[in-house]
Structure formats: C-alpha cells, structure tokens
Amino acid sequence: MSDWINVTALDQLAEGERIVVDVDDVNVLIFNIKGEFFAIEDVCTHDGSEIASGCLKGEDIECPRHGARFNIRTGEVTAPPAYEPIDTFPVQVINGVIQVRDPRWD
Ligand code: FES
C-alpha cells in the first residue's frame, strides 16, 4: 500500500483555499471546502492542462482552457468537452497535518 505523504499543516490551508503538491512526481490539487478536504490530479483529462487555476463552482472545478468541469469529490466529468474523469486521492488529517496518498499503484 502506498504511503501517506505529509502535505501541509492544517492551519495553512484555510477554508476555500487550494494547494498543489508533488506526490511521487504527480501534481495533486487539494481543496478545503467548508472544512472538508478533497484531492484530485492537477491534469485536465481533455487536453492535459493544469486545472488548479480554474474557477470552483460549488463542488465542481472548471478547466481554465476549454471549460470542462469535474466534481472534486468524485472526479467525474460534469460538463464537456472532457469525458474521462480526473483521478481522486484519499486525504486525511493526522495530528494537525494534512496527508494524501496515491493508491493507484497499490
Ligand atoms: S484542457 Fe481542460 S477543457 Fe480542454
């Protein structure tokens, strides 16, 4: 099983903020939405763009290039032109530290 990776201190990711971290050479975008944490790969499945700078609309993020939308809880596409979901990652908070792991290779 993949290891949990320390991302940042809990108090460094306030509600409504996001951060991109390198997890074993994968850019992972982590959100704090009303105290709940979500993590997705920072790659739009439409054409490989970063998505971290996109607008957040509820639990959907909109790709800044062509406007595809993805649910950050599930990774599912909620608006075209993308049709493949974005990978999501488990997040946990241990002793005030946010951690993620990449289970894709477990
Ligand atoms: S690269 Fe994201 S919608 Fe095209």
What is the H/E string?
EEEEEEEEEEE
Query: Biggest β-sheet, characterized?
Result: 4 strands, antiparallel
| Ligand catalogue | FE2/S2 (inorganic) cluster
What is the CATH class designation? Mainly Beta
Give the strand order of the largest sheet, numbering strands 1, 2, ... along the chain. Answer: 2-3-4-9
Mean pLDDT: 94
Gross morphology is globular
Give a structural overview.
This protein has 106 residues and is an all-beta fold. The chain has a single domain, classed as Rieske [2Fe-2S] iron-sulphur domain (Rieske Iron-sulfur Protein, 3-layer Sandwich), CATH 2.102.10. Helix content is 0%, strand content 44%. The chain contains no helices and eleven strands. It has strands at residues 5-9, 18-23, 26-33, 36-41, 55-57, 60-62, 69-71, 77-79, 88-89, 91-94, 97-100. The protein binds FE2/S2 (inorganic) cluster (FES).
Which properties best describe this structure?
mainly beta; Rieske Iron-sulfur Protein; four-stranded antiparallel sheet
In short:
The protein has 106 residues and is mainly β.
List the helices and strands and how they pair.
Elements: E1 5-9, E2 18-23, E3 26-33, E4 36-41, E5 55-57, E6 60-62, E7 69-71, E8 77-79, E9 88-89, E10 91-94, E11 97-100
Antiparallel strand pairs: 1-11, 2-3, 3-4, 4-9, 5-6, 6-7, 7-8, 10-11
The structure holds FE2/S2 (inorganic) cluster.
